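In this section we turn from sequence analysis to structure. A common task in structural bioinformatics is to predict how a protein folds when a small molecule is present, because the ligand can shape the pocket around it. The inputs are simple: the amino acid sequence and a SMILES string for the ligand, here flavin-adenine dinucleotide. Study the lines below before reading on.
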Amino acid sequence: MDFALTDELEDLLERTQSLMTEAVYPVEAEALRSFESALPALLEAREAVKAAGLWAPQMPRELGGMGLGFLDHAVMSEVLGKSPLGHFVFGCQAPDAGNQEILLEFGTDAQKAEWLAPLVRGDIRSCFGMTEPDRAGSSPTWLDTRALRDGDHYVIDGHKWFTTGAHGAALCIVMAVTNPDAPPHLRASQLLVPTDTPGFEHVRRTPVMGDEGFGWSSHSEIRLTGCRVPVSNRLGAEGAGFLIAQARLGPGRIHHCMRWLGICERAFELMCERAATREIAPGKPLATRQVVQHWIADSRAEIDAARLSVRHAAWKIDAEGARAARQEISCIKFLVAGTLQRVVDRALQVHGGLGMTDYTPLAWFYRHERAARIYDGADEVHKSVVARRELERFGFDVRAGRSAPE
Ligand SMILES: Cc1cc2nc3c(=O)[nH]c(=O)nc-3n(C[C@H](O)[C@H](O)[C@H](O)COP(=O)(O)OP(=O)(O)OC[C@H]3O[C@@H](n4cnc5c(N)ncnc54)[C@H](O)[C@@H]3O)c2cc1C
């Protein structure tokens, strides 16, 4: 296992960091006041990224991306994660990046021409609608949304929420039950639903800790009422919705975790800068206090340990495949989400009242990234899965609540 970065990758990271400093950080203050009013500046920054050849790192070159392998993209994702704006400006924000990946892998030529090409160019945006207000997202196979066959169309009825980026999106990939009598994991399909389809209603942006967000940085409630799409809008085979979702799970989680580590590093930098400069008495900066030193030391150790765990999981996916790395993939989800929460909290505390304002990105991280412990599988679900697999090795069957018979 070799975690050394190639010279080429080091160079890419340096160019990425320079562009973050020149084109992204200067827009942050405006964006933290209003993402809407910062949009023109963000679109300008996107042009600078395209001109520098750093656009859409995860997509193949022939589609206009950089064609990076998943490990290199993961490392770049950490640098982009240092700002709430990084992934959007570089054309790889969630959920568009994941949607592009599944369209690339499972889409027909016609679907790719209609949706993938404009998505990769950044001309349109997309969203992914799976979670429903009336069903526990932690039991993802339990969905009320139905897509019934009517000739060569599906008619979709359902209610979704937390559909990230739906506000202003042109396409929603909707997870709907098409085969209610099949085994749970084979009941749902993924359907490409243009958001101007009659019956597709954007109900509202759901406020998240007081902030309803805007565009790509918001989470919406959606209603589908008699929404008709041709059968040719189905992604992959009928009933393959969860298999497609699973296919992007391993690499997708590595990217989430690396983005979270970027947030940790930014919060850490802000914490150290503030500790070194904020005097609590003449000539006595905060950094002279042992409690602050310990927050810095704990944060450094936790971030580095988390990063090594993520890179180990990524290495295992690459070497042995996502299935063999299931345990590592589950572990990094809650390990990094917890690290993120602790590091951002300490950085905010060191800033005192300033930490509560939007004059630094810390309050934004605090508001929005608390959700890291909830989405992509709630931490508790992952912990249960990890414990179940570990206990199995000791002959204990968690589901049965007892040791397996000899
Ligand atoms: C910011 C944000 C963005 C999101 N974006 C999207 C999106 O783009 N598309 C989409 O479809 N969904 C999205 N989601 C939804 C997300 O996937 C769900 O919130 C998540 O799966 C949890 O489902 P739930 O909210 O229904 O919580 P529930 O399933 O009701 O769970 C509530 C809590 O119960 C506990 N719990 C649940 N199961 C267990 C268990 N087995 N053992 C112990 N404890 C348990 C956990 O603490 C959990 O937090 C987003 C959510 C957030 C917060």
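The pocket of flavin-adenine dinucleotide is lined by residues 95, 128-131, 136-138, 162-164, 219, 371, 374-375, 378, 380-381, 384 (CB under 6 Å). As an exercise, try to locate the residues that line the flavin-adenine dinucleotide site and compare them with your own expectations.
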